[in-house]
Amino acid sequence: QVQLVESGGGLVQPGGSLRLSCAASGSIDVIYAMVWYRQAPGKQREFVGEIRSGGSTNVADSVKGRFSISRDNAKNTMYLQMDSLKPEDTAVYYCNAQIKPARLPASDYWGQGTQVTVSS
Asked: What whole-number percentage of the chain has pLDDT above 70?
């Protein structure tokens, strides 16, 4: 059974940094794109950034220059480095990935989310 688990969230002051991780586990053949989303209270879930299997990345304009995405294919893990954090970055951050498990077709998987709070 494939699972995605996020970690690394917490409380940080404005201007601070956090590094989120998203680890995929289970019997996995291939992980295609991995994506970060976030959802602030009372708002819709929004795209933060993605990294494709080849390593190319794309981030939302709202976080460009502050957030960066990387992945360690050997560990089936994606990272979100968040610098110069602002109060408006406060949200639950979710990991999403397109994964082909062993002996099953590819499908979309979601993590449970990790809370990031930026406040003084």
From this structure: 100
